[in-house]
Amino acid sequence: MRTMTESRVLAGAALAAAVLIAASAVSAQSSPETFTARAVVKSATAGASAPVTIQIDRFVSDGDRTRIMDVVKRNDATATREAFEKLDDIGFVELGSRRTPIKYAYVRPTGDGRTITVVTARPILFLGGSLPDAKPKEGYDLALALLVLDAKDTGQGELAPAAKVKMNGEGAIVTDEYGSEVVRLTAVAKKPK
Known about the structure:
The protein has helices at 2-30, 62-72, 77-86; strands at residues 33-42, 47-56, 91-95, 98-110, 113-120, 142-149, 154-167, 173-177, 183-190. By secondary structure, the protein is α+β, with helices and mostly antiparallel strands. The chain has two domains: 1-30; 31-190, no CATH class. Strands 1-2-3-4-5-6-7-9 form an eight-stranded antiparallel barrel. Strand 7 and strand 8 (173-177) form a beta hairpin.
């Protein structure tokens, strides 16, 4: 009888510890993270750069990621945009004076760092076309940022300020960008709290 009671006490203590650990992990994940970077674009005739701030209030869960990827797999631009629009705002991307709400932020561990994918439900900027006032084109309804970070949360990335998002035959997410120039994110760094 005594062994059974001790086992119950130990099991209860283990359960309480697991709950506390899970609660601290959730609170750690729910604190906002802010990254600064420099958006750099170069073409054969010109180049430009601007500061970028990406604030992520929280990351999506694996379940939410699966649900949204199921929509993206259909390769229906309207359905994809609508699925992202329905998600809550969970941060923002600020480029110059323009602030665009983040609808999707997913983090994946990579070696000693991590990769963060951020998607907005509307374009940040139509870069390319007939600059300086490039106009919207149908279907380029989202923006995507990819941050590749090391163990110190510094690194590099890319920004697709207006893009179509779809999935290829191998299950990888691919973007079709509005402009032909790649926007590089340089000097990416997490701001200290």
